[in-house]
TrEMBL record:
InterPro entries: Diguanylate_Cyclase, GAF, GAF-like_dom_sf, GGDEF_dom, Nucleotide_cyclase, Rev_trsase/Diguanyl_cyclase. GO terms for biological process: cell adhesion involved in single-species biofilm formation; negative regulation of bacterial-type flagellum-dependent cell motility. Residues 334-354 are annotated as: Disordered. NCBIfam families: GGDEF. Coiled coil: none annotated. One of its GO terms (molecular function) is diguanylate cyclase activity. This is Unannotated protein. One of its GO terms (cellular component) is plasma membrane. PROSITE patterns: GGDEF. Residues 202-334 form the GGDEF domain. Transmembrane segments: none annotated.
Amino acid sequence: MRLHSVARLARILAEPQELVDLLETAAHEACSSLGAASVSIGYLERERGTVRTVINVGDLSSWEEPRPIDQGFQDLPSFPLLLKDPSPFVVSLDPPVGDADALRYLTLRNKGSALVAPVLLEGRVWGELYATRLSGQAPFNEQDGELAEVLAAVLASGIAQAERFSQVEHLVYSDPLTGLANRRAVDLALERALVEYQVSGDPVSVVMADVNGLKFANDNEGHQAGDRLIRACADAISQATGNVARALAGRIGGDEFAIVLPNVALDTAEKVANSILNALERSAYPGGLAVGVASTSMADGSGEVTSRRLMGWADEAQYAAKREGSSRVLLAGRDTPLSEPVERRRRRRSGPEWATNAERATNALEAGLRVMVMSQGLSALDRLVAVVDSASEAIGAVGWVVSTISSDTTQAVAVSANRDGLDVSSGHDVTTDRSWLAAARGVGVLVRADDESSDVARVRHCATVAAAATDVWLVELLADSDELLVGVPAILRALLGSALSG
Protein backbone atom coordinates (compact mmCIF):
# COMPACT_ATOMS: atom_id res chain seq x y z
CA MET A 1 0.00 0.00 0.00
CA ARG A 2 2.85 2.38 0.86
CA LEU A 3 4.59 1.66 -2.44
CA HIS A 4 1.30 2.32 -4.20
CA SER A 5 1.17 5.71 -2.46
CA VAL A 6 4.68 6.57 -3.67
CA ALA A 7 3.78 5.50 -7.21
CA ARG A 8 0.63 7.62 -7.19
CA LEU A 9 2.56 10.65 -5.93
CA ALA A 10 5.18 10.24 -8.65
CA ARG A 11 2.46 10.08 -11.33
CA ILE A 12 0.84 13.26 -10.03
CA LEU A 13 4.09 15.19 -9.66
CA ALA A 14 5.14 14.22 -13.18
CA GLU A 15 2.47 16.60 -14.54
CA PRO A 16 2.94 20.37 -14.94
CA GLN A 17 1.54 22.44 -12.06
CA GLU A 18 2.34 25.47 -9.97
CA LEU A 19 4.90 24.81 -7.25
CA VAL A 20 2.59 25.60 -4.33
CA ASP A 21 -0.07 23.23 -5.74
CA LEU A 22 2.58 20.54 -6.17
CA LEU A 23 3.71 20.92 -2.56
CA GLU A 24 0.14 20.75 -1.27
CA THR A 25 -0.51 17.56 -3.25
CA ALA A 26 2.68 16.01 -1.90
CA ALA A 27 1.82 17.01 1.68
CA HIS A 28 -1.62 15.37 1.51
CA GLU A 29 -0.15 12.17 0.07
CA ALA A 30 2.62 12.07 2.68
CA CYS A 31 0.12 12.67 5.48
CA SER A 32 -1.93 9.69 4.33
CA SER A 33 0.90 7.24 3.62
CA LEU A 34 2.85 8.05 6.82
CA GLY A 35 -0.22 7.88 9.07
CA ALA A 36 0.57 11.41 10.21
CA ALA A 37 -1.66 13.92 11.97
CA SER A 38 -0.15 16.78 9.97
CA VAL A 39 2.51 17.43 7.36
CA SER A 40 4.32 20.65 6.59
CA ILE A 41 6.69 21.38 3.72
CA GLY A 42 9.13 24.26 3.84
CA TYR A 43 12.13 25.51 1.91
CA LEU A 44 15.53 26.36 3.28
CA GLU A 45 16.39 30.06 3.40
CA ARG A 46 20.12 29.84 3.65
CA GLU A 47 20.64 33.58 3.84
CA ARG A 48 18.34 33.78 6.92
CA GLY A 49 19.15 30.47 8.54
CA THR A 50 15.61 29.16 8.65
CA VAL A 51 13.18 26.80 7.01
CA ARG A 52 10.19 28.78 5.77
CA THR A 53 6.92 26.87 5.75
CA VAL A 54 4.99 26.90 2.46
CA ILE A 55 2.26 24.28 3.06
CA ASN A 56 0.52 22.87 6.14
CA VAL A 57 -2.08 20.10 5.91
CA GLY A 58 -3.89 17.90 8.44
CA ASP A 59 -4.53 18.56 12.14
CA LEU A 60 -3.15 22.09 12.52
CA SER A 61 -2.65 24.32 15.54
CA SER A 62 -4.72 27.51 15.81
CA TRP A 63 -1.82 29.64 14.58
CA GLU A 64 -0.96 27.48 11.57
CA GLU A 65 -2.32 28.41 8.14
CA PRO A 66 -2.67 25.97 5.19
CA ARG A 67 -0.72 28.33 2.92
CA PRO A 68 1.07 30.72 5.29
CA ILE A 69 2.18 34.05 3.94
CA ASP A 70 4.98 34.45 6.48
CA GLN A 71 5.55 31.47 8.75
CA GLY A 72 9.27 31.10 9.24
CA PHE A 73 11.18 30.42 12.45
CA GLN A 74 14.74 31.58 13.05
CA ASP A 75 15.24 28.85 15.66
CA LEU A 76 13.65 26.01 13.70
CA PRO A 77 15.51 23.01 15.12
CA SER A 78 15.82 21.08 11.89
CA PHE A 79 17.88 23.76 10.17
CA PRO A 80 21.34 22.95 11.61
CA LEU A 81 20.61 19.22 11.66
CA LEU A 82 19.63 19.19 7.98
CA LEU A 83 22.88 20.88 6.99
CA LYS A 84 25.02 18.65 9.19
CA ASP A 85 23.46 15.32 8.24
CA PRO A 86 20.82 15.46 5.45
CA SER A 87 18.94 12.30 6.39
CA PRO A 88 15.56 11.69 8.07
CA PHE A 89 15.37 11.87 11.87
CA VAL A 90 12.69 11.50 14.55
CA VAL A 91 11.79 13.81 17.45
CA SER A 92 9.62 12.45 20.27
CA LEU A 93 8.30 13.68 23.63
CA ASP A 94 7.59 10.21 25.06
CA PRO A 95 10.14 8.76 25.14
CA PRO A 96 12.20 11.97 24.83
CA VAL A 97 14.21 11.97 21.59
CA GLY A 98 15.84 15.12 20.24
CA ASP A 99 17.47 18.24 21.61
CA ALA A 100 15.72 20.94 23.64
CA ASP A 101 14.91 23.15 20.65
CA ALA A 102 13.38 20.26 18.71
CA LEU A 103 11.25 19.20 21.68
CA ARG A 104 10.14 22.78 22.35
CA TYR A 105 9.02 23.21 18.74
CA LEU A 106 7.10 19.90 18.90
CA THR A 107 5.33 21.08 22.06
CA LEU A 108 4.46 24.36 20.33
CA ARG A 109 2.61 22.37 17.68
CA ASN A 110 0.73 20.28 20.30
CA LYS A 111 2.11 17.00 18.90
CA GLY A 112 3.81 13.96 20.42
CA SER A 113 6.36 13.05 17.77
CA ALA A 114 7.74 14.34 14.48
CA LEU A 115 9.58 12.93 11.48
CA VAL A 116 11.79 15.30 9.51
CA ALA A 117 12.97 14.31 6.01
CA PRO A 118 15.20 16.59 3.93
CA VAL A 119 14.25 17.37 0.35
CA LEU A 120 17.45 17.24 -1.68
CA LEU A 121 17.72 19.01 -5.01
CA GLU A 122 20.87 18.62 -7.11
CA GLY A 123 22.74 17.27 -4.09
CA ARG A 124 21.85 20.14 -1.74
CA VAL A 125 19.12 20.58 0.87
CA TRP A 126 16.21 22.43 -0.74
CA GLY A 127 13.92 22.13 2.28
CA GLU A 128 12.15 19.64 4.48
CA LEU A 129 9.09 17.46 4.89
CA TYR A 130 7.94 17.71 8.54
CA ALA A 131 5.36 15.09 9.63
CA THR A 132 3.78 14.89 13.09
CA ARG A 133 1.72 12.47 15.16
CA LEU A 134 -0.45 13.24 18.17
CA SER A 135 0.45 12.43 21.76
CA GLY A 136 -0.69 8.88 22.45
CA GLN A 137 0.03 7.72 18.90
CA ALA A 138 3.02 5.50 18.27
CA PRO A 139 6.11 7.59 17.49
CA PHE A 140 7.58 7.37 14.01
CA ASN A 141 10.00 4.49 13.47
CA GLU A 142 12.83 3.54 11.11
CA GLN A 143 10.45 2.19 8.46
CA ASP A 144 8.55 5.49 8.49
CA GLY A 145 11.85 7.29 7.97
CA GLU A 146 12.69 5.12 4.95
CA LEU A 147 9.29 5.85 3.39
CA ALA A 148 9.64 9.58 4.10
CA GLU A 149 13.03 9.54 2.38
CA VAL A 150 11.50 8.05 -0.79
CA LEU A 151 8.57 10.50 -0.70
CA ALA A 152 11.03 13.38 -0.34
CA ALA A 153 13.04 12.10 -3.31
CA VAL A 154 9.92 11.93 -5.50
CA LEU A 155 8.95 15.41 -4.29
CA ALA A 156 12.39 16.73 -5.25
CA SER A 157 11.87 15.47 -8.79
CA GLY A 158 8.54 17.29 -8.97
CA ILE A 159 10.07 20.52 -7.67
CA ALA A 160 12.82 20.37 -10.29
CA GLN A 161 10.24 19.91 -13.04
CA ALA A 162 7.97 22.69 -11.76
CA GLU A 163 10.78 25.16 -12.30
CA ARG A 164 11.01 24.18 -15.96
CA PHE A 165 7.38 23.77 -17.01
CA SER A 166 6.83 27.47 -17.71
CA GLN A 167 9.74 27.38 -20.17
CA VAL A 168 8.40 24.52 -22.30
CA GLU A 169 5.99 26.39 -24.58
CA HIS A 170 4.53 23.50 -26.54
CA LEU A 171 3.21 21.64 -23.48
CA VAL A 172 -0.51 22.40 -23.85
CA TYR A 173 -2.90 21.47 -21.08
CA SER A 174 -6.00 23.04 -22.55
CA ASP A 175 -8.19 22.09 -25.47
CA PRO A 176 -7.69 24.60 -28.33
CA LEU A 177 -11.21 24.21 -29.76
CA THR A 178 -13.18 24.84 -26.56
CA GLY A 179 -10.77 26.54 -24.18
CA LEU A 180 -11.53 23.91 -21.54
CA ALA A 181 -8.91 21.67 -19.97
CA ASN A 182 -7.73 18.60 -21.87
CA ARG A 183 -7.62 14.96 -20.78
CA ARG A 184 -4.24 15.24 -19.10
CA ALA A 185 -5.34 18.18 -16.95
CA VAL A 186 -8.59 16.42 -16.00
CA ASP A 187 -6.75 13.25 -14.97
CA LEU A 188 -4.34 15.29 -12.86
CA ALA A 189 -7.14 17.24 -11.14
CA LEU A 190 -9.01 14.04 -10.32
CA GLU A 191 -5.89 12.38 -8.90
CA ARG A 192 -5.31 15.41 -6.66
CA ALA A 193 -8.91 15.43 -5.47
CA LEU A 194 -8.83 11.72 -4.63
CA VAL A 195 -5.61 12.15 -2.64
CA GLU A 196 -7.43 14.74 -0.52
CA TYR A 197 -10.49 12.48 -0.28
CA GLN A 198 -8.39 9.64 1.14
CA VAL A 199 -7.03 11.97 3.82
CA SER A 200 -10.07 14.08 4.72
CA GLY A 201 -13.03 12.03 3.51
CA ASP A 202 -14.44 15.05 1.66
CA PRO A 203 -16.44 13.76 -1.32
CA VAL A 204 -15.35 13.97 -4.93
CA SER A 205 -17.80 13.88 -7.83
CA VAL A 206 -17.36 13.52 -11.57
CA VAL A 207 -19.73 14.56 -14.34
CA MET A 208 -19.32 12.88 -17.73
CA ALA A 209 -21.05 14.21 -20.84
CA ASP A 210 -21.18 12.96 -24.42
CA VAL A 211 -22.32 15.09 -27.38
CA ASN A 212 -25.51 13.97 -29.12
CA GLY A 213 -25.74 14.29 -32.89
CA LEU A 214 -22.12 15.15 -33.63
CA LYS A 215 -21.76 12.56 -36.40
CA PHE A 216 -24.96 13.80 -38.05
CA ALA A 217 -23.73 17.41 -37.93
CA ASN A 218 -20.34 16.47 -39.37
CA ASP A 219 -21.76 14.24 -42.12
CA ASN A 220 -24.59 16.54 -43.21
CA GLU A 221 -23.38 20.06 -42.47
CA GLY A 222 -19.60 19.71 -42.36
CA HIS A 223 -17.04 19.72 -39.60
CA GLN A 224 -17.48 23.42 -38.93
CA ALA A 225 -21.05 22.68 -37.86
CA GLY A 226 -19.74 19.88 -35.65
CA ASP A 227 -17.24 22.27 -34.11
CA ARG A 228 -20.02 24.78 -33.37
CA LEU A 229 -21.98 22.05 -31.58
CA ILE A 230 -18.95 21.07 -29.50
CA ARG A 231 -18.27 24.71 -28.58
CA ALA A 232 -21.92 25.26 -27.60
CA CYS A 233 -21.76 22.26 -25.28
CA ALA A 234 -18.47 23.53 -23.83
CA ASP A 235 -20.04 26.96 -23.21
CA ALA A 236 -22.93 25.37 -21.32
CA ILE A 237 -20.50 23.34 -19.22
CA SER A 238 -18.39 26.40 -18.52
CA GLN A 239 -21.44 28.41 -17.40
CA ALA A 240 -22.55 25.64 -15.05
CA THR A 241 -19.17 25.12 -13.38
CA GLY A 242 -17.91 28.70 -13.23
CA ASN A 243 -19.30 29.33 -9.75
CA VAL A 244 -18.30 25.97 -8.23
CA ALA A 245 -15.14 26.26 -6.19
CA ARG A 246 -12.19 24.26 -7.60
CA ALA A 247 -14.30 22.69 -10.37
CA LEU A 248 -12.36 21.73 -13.49
CA ALA A 249 -14.13 21.08 -16.79
CA GLY A 250 -12.35 19.48 -19.71
CA ARG A 251 -12.84 18.04 -23.17
CA ILE A 252 -11.29 14.58 -22.94
CA GLY A 253 -12.11 13.29 -26.42
CA GLY A 254 -13.65 14.33 -29.70
CA ASP A 255 -17.22 14.42 -28.35
CA GLU A 256 -16.68 13.82 -24.64
CA PHE A 257 -16.41 16.09 -21.63
CA ALA A 258 -15.63 15.56 -17.96
CA ILE A 259 -15.98 17.77 -14.90
CA VAL A 260 -14.03 17.13 -11.69
CA LEU A 261 -15.79 18.47 -8.58
CA PRO A 262 -13.60 18.28 -5.45
CA ASN A 263 -15.42 18.52 -2.11
CA VAL A 264 -18.81 18.20 -3.88
CA ALA A 265 -21.34 15.52 -2.91
CA LEU A 266 -23.70 13.74 -5.29
CA ASP A 267 -26.73 15.99 -4.81
CA THR A 268 -24.74 19.14 -5.62
CA ALA A 269 -23.06 17.44 -8.58
CA GLU A 270 -26.51 16.50 -9.91
CA LYS A 271 -27.55 20.17 -9.71
CA VAL A 272 -24.43 21.16 -11.66
CA ALA A 273 -25.22 18.56 -14.33
CA ASN A 274 -28.85 19.69 -14.59
CA SER A 275 -27.76 23.31 -14.99
CA ILE A 276 -25.67 22.21 -18.00
CA LEU A 277 -28.73 20.67 -19.65
CA ASN A 278 -30.82 23.73 -18.79
CA ALA A 279 -28.24 26.01 -20.39
CA LEU A 280 -28.32 23.90 -23.56
CA GLU A 281 -32.13 24.06 -23.65
CA ARG A 282 -31.80 27.83 -23.96
CA SER A 283 -29.26 27.53 -26.77
CA ALA A 284 -29.52 26.45 -30.39
CA TYR A 285 -28.69 22.87 -29.33
CA PRO A 286 -31.31 21.58 -26.85
CA GLY A 287 -30.63 17.98 -25.92
CA GLY A 288 -27.05 18.33 -27.11
CA LEU A 289 -25.54 16.26 -24.30
CA ALA A 290 -26.08 12.96 -22.53
CA VAL A 291 -24.94 13.34 -18.93
CA GLY A 292 -24.00 10.99 -16.09
CA VAL A 293 -22.69 11.63 -12.58
CA ALA A 294 -20.70 9.55 -10.09
CA SER A 295 -19.51 10.43 -6.61
CA THR A 296 -17.44 8.94 -3.83
CA SER A 297 -20.41 9.63 -1.55
CA MET A 298 -22.23 6.72 -3.26
CA ALA A 299 -19.30 4.32 -3.12
CA ASP A 300 -19.65 2.83 0.36
CA GLY A 301 -18.77 -0.84 0.24
CA SER A 302 -17.60 -0.65 -3.38
CA GLY A 303 -13.90 -0.96 -2.59
CA GLU A 304 -11.16 1.58 -3.22
CA VAL A 305 -12.34 4.51 -5.30
CA THR A 306 -9.76 5.09 -8.02
CA SER A 307 -9.91 7.69 -10.77
CA ARG A 308 -10.58 4.96 -13.32
CA ARG A 309 -13.52 3.57 -11.34
CA LEU A 310 -15.07 6.97 -10.62
CA MET A 311 -14.85 8.11 -14.24
CA GLY A 312 -15.98 4.69 -15.43
CA TRP A 313 -19.11 4.82 -13.25
CA ALA A 314 -19.98 8.29 -14.52
CA ASP A 315 -19.24 7.19 -18.08
CA GLU A 316 -21.60 4.22 -17.83
CA ALA A 317 -24.33 6.47 -16.42
CA GLN A 318 -24.09 8.96 -19.28
CA TYR A 319 -23.90 6.14 -21.82
CA ALA A 320 -27.14 4.76 -20.37
CA ALA A 321 -28.67 8.22 -20.81
CA LYS A 322 -27.53 8.25 -24.43
CA ARG A 323 -28.96 4.78 -25.10
CA GLU A 324 -32.39 5.74 -23.79
CA GLY A 325 -32.33 9.16 -25.44
CA SER A 326 -32.85 10.71 -22.04
CA SER A 327 -32.75 14.44 -21.43
CA ARG A 328 -32.30 13.85 -17.69
CA VAL A 329 -29.15 13.33 -15.67
CA LEU A 330 -28.50 9.71 -14.68
CA LEU A 331 -26.67 8.95 -11.43
CA ALA A 332 -24.26 6.09 -10.89
CA GLY A 333 -25.39 4.06 -7.90
CA ARG A 334 -29.02 5.06 -8.37
CA ASP A 335 -29.80 4.69 -12.07
CA THR A 336 -26.85 2.46 -13.00
CA PRO A 337 -24.88 -0.02 -10.86
CA LEU A 338 -21.46 0.66 -9.38
CA SER A 339 -19.97 -2.35 -11.12
CA GLU A 340 -16.38 -2.63 -12.28
CA PRO A 341 -16.36 -0.19 -15.20
CA VAL A 342 -15.49 -1.08 -18.77
CA GLU A 343 -14.76 2.23 -20.39
CA ARG A 344 -16.99 3.00 -23.33
CA ARG A 345 -14.30 5.04 -25.07
CA ARG A 346 -11.97 2.06 -24.96
CA ARG A 347 -14.63 -0.22 -26.45
CA ARG A 348 -15.45 2.19 -29.23
CA ARG A 349 -12.10 3.40 -30.36
CA SER A 350 -8.91 1.89 -29.14
CA GLY A 351 -9.35 -1.71 -28.08
CA PRO A 352 -7.81 -2.84 -24.79
CA GLU A 353 -4.56 -0.90 -25.14
CA TRP A 354 -5.65 2.00 -22.89
CA ALA A 355 -5.75 -0.08 -19.74
CA THR A 356 -2.72 -2.11 -20.80
CA ASN A 357 -0.63 1.01 -21.33
CA ALA A 358 -1.65 2.44 -17.97
CA GLU A 359 -0.77 -0.82 -16.27
CA ARG A 360 2.61 -0.97 -18.02
CA ALA A 361 3.44 2.60 -16.98
CA THR A 362 2.48 1.87 -13.37
CA ASN A 363 4.54 -1.32 -13.39
CA ALA A 364 7.56 0.58 -14.68
CA LEU A 365 7.17 3.23 -12.01
CA GLU A 366 6.79 0.79 -9.15
CA ALA A 367 9.70 -1.35 -10.34
CA GLY A 368 11.94 1.70 -10.65
CA LEU A 369 11.00 3.00 -7.22
CA ARG A 370 11.55 -0.40 -5.64
CA VAL A 371 15.08 -0.61 -7.07
CA MET A 372 15.72 3.01 -6.10
CA VAL A 373 15.11 2.22 -2.45
CA MET A 374 17.55 -0.68 -2.61
CA SER A 375 20.25 1.28 -4.47
CA GLN A 376 20.79 4.08 -1.96
CA GLY A 377 24.49 4.79 -1.56
CA LEU A 378 25.42 3.92 -5.14
CA SER A 379 26.86 6.44 -7.55
CA ALA A 380 24.45 8.47 -9.70
CA LEU A 381 25.31 6.40 -12.79
CA ASP A 382 24.94 3.04 -11.03
CA ARG A 383 21.64 4.13 -9.52
CA LEU A 384 20.35 5.35 -12.90
CA VAL A 385 21.33 2.11 -14.61
CA ALA A 386 19.63 0.01 -11.92
CA VAL A 387 16.42 2.04 -12.07
CA VAL A 388 16.19 2.24 -15.87
CA ASP A 389 17.02 -1.43 -16.31
CA SER A 390 14.32 -2.41 -13.83
CA ALA A 391 11.72 -0.14 -15.46
CA SER A 392 12.65 -1.47 -18.91
CA GLU A 393 12.14 -5.06 -17.81
CA ALA A 394 8.83 -4.28 -16.11
CA ILE A 395 7.40 -2.57 -19.18
CA GLY A 396 8.66 -5.10 -21.72
CA ALA A 397 10.94 -2.69 -23.58
CA VAL A 398 13.56 -4.15 -25.91
CA GLY A 399 16.35 -2.04 -24.47
CA TRP A 400 17.51 1.08 -22.69
CA VAL A 401 20.31 3.65 -22.93
CA VAL A 402 21.79 6.03 -20.34
CA SER A 403 23.78 8.95 -21.78
CA THR A 404 25.49 12.13 -20.74
CA ILE A 405 24.63 15.40 -22.51
CA SER A 406 27.18 17.92 -23.70
CA SER A 407 25.80 21.39 -23.06
CA ASP A 408 27.97 22.84 -25.83
CA THR A 409 26.85 20.57 -28.67
CA THR A 410 23.61 19.07 -27.23
CA GLN A 411 25.13 15.71 -28.14
CA ALA A 412 24.15 12.72 -26.02
CA VAL A 413 26.96 10.20 -25.55
CA ALA A 414 25.90 6.77 -24.28
CA VAL A 415 27.77 5.56 -21.21
CA SER A 416 25.69 2.44 -20.55
CA ALA A 417 23.27 0.50 -22.77
CA ASN A 418 21.43 -2.79 -22.95
CA ARG A 419 19.46 -4.28 -25.85
CA ASP A 420 17.45 -7.51 -25.72
CA GLY A 421 19.32 -8.61 -22.60
CA LEU A 422 22.80 -8.07 -24.07
CA ASP A 423 25.20 -5.27 -23.21
CA VAL A 424 25.90 -3.24 -26.33
CA SER A 425 28.34 -0.54 -27.25
CA SER A 426 27.16 3.06 -27.39
CA GLY A 427 27.01 2.99 -31.19
CA HIS A 428 26.07 6.30 -32.78
CA ASP A 429 25.61 9.28 -30.51
CA VAL A 430 22.39 11.30 -30.53
CA THR A 431 22.20 14.96 -31.51
CA THR A 432 19.19 17.00 -30.42
CA ASP A 433 18.02 20.58 -30.67
CA ARG A 434 17.43 22.67 -27.58
CA SER A 435 13.63 22.73 -27.84
CA TRP A 436 13.57 18.92 -27.89
CA LEU A 437 15.82 18.82 -24.84
CA ALA A 438 13.54 21.32 -23.07
CA ALA A 439 10.63 18.94 -23.56
CA ALA A 440 12.68 15.94 -22.44
CA ARG A 441 13.69 17.85 -19.32
CA GLY A 442 10.12 18.94 -18.69
CA VAL A 443 7.88 15.86 -18.71
CA GLY A 444 9.73 13.60 -21.13
CA VAL A 445 9.07 12.91 -24.82
CA LEU A 446 7.92 10.05 -27.01
CA VAL A 447 9.88 9.84 -30.28
CA ARG A 448 9.04 7.70 -33.28
CA ALA A 449 11.36 6.72 -36.10
CA ASP A 450 9.72 9.16 -38.54
CA ASP A 451 9.87 12.17 -36.21
CA GLU A 452 11.88 15.10 -37.52
CA SER A 453 12.38 16.66 -34.09
CA SER A 454 15.01 14.13 -33.05
CA ASP A 455 16.99 11.28 -34.55
CA VAL A 456 17.01 9.26 -31.33
CA ALA A 457 14.69 6.45 -32.56
CA ARG A 458 16.49 6.15 -35.90
CA VAL A 459 19.88 6.04 -34.20
CA ARG A 460 18.68 3.34 -31.81
CA HIS A 461 17.14 1.33 -34.69
CA CYS A 462 13.74 0.96 -33.04
CA ALA A 463 10.17 2.09 -33.67
CA THR A 464 9.70 4.25 -30.58
CA VAL A 465 11.76 5.77 -27.77
CA ALA A 466 10.56 7.20 -24.47
CA ALA A 467 13.17 9.76 -23.42
CA ALA A 468 13.70 11.99 -20.39
CA ALA A 469 16.55 14.29 -19.50
CA THR A 470 18.14 16.58 -16.94
CA ASP A 471 20.87 19.12 -17.62
CA VAL A 472 23.43 16.30 -17.58
CA TRP A 473 21.68 12.99 -18.18
CA LEU A 474 19.50 11.47 -20.91
CA VAL A 475 17.71 8.15 -20.37
CA GLU A 476 15.84 6.19 -23.05
CA LEU A 477 13.54 3.17 -23.13
CA LEU A 478 13.41 1.46 -26.54
CA ALA A 479 10.47 -0.38 -28.11
CA ASP A 480 9.63 -2.01 -31.42
CA SER A 481 5.96 -1.02 -31.09
CA ASP A 482 4.35 2.41 -31.28
CA GLU A 483 1.89 1.47 -28.53
CA LEU A 484 4.20 0.05 -25.88
CA LEU A 485 5.55 3.34 -24.49
CA VAL A 486 2.37 5.45 -24.45
CA GLY A 487 2.25 7.30 -21.12
CA VAL A 488 5.79 6.29 -20.16
CA PRO A 489 7.85 9.51 -20.75
CA ALA A 490 6.42 11.33 -17.73
CA ILE A 491 6.98 8.25 -15.57
CA LEU A 492 10.56 7.99 -16.84
CA ARG A 493 11.16 11.68 -16.06
CA ALA A 494 9.93 11.20 -12.49
CA LEU A 495 12.19 8.18 -12.02
CA LEU A 496 15.17 10.06 -13.43
CA GLY A 497 14.74 13.00 -11.09
CA SER A 498 14.13 10.79 -8.07
CA ALA A 499 17.16 8.60 -8.78
CA LEU A 500 19.45 11.62 -9.03
CA SER A 501 18.05 13.34 -5.96
CA GLY A 502 18.46 10.20 -3.83
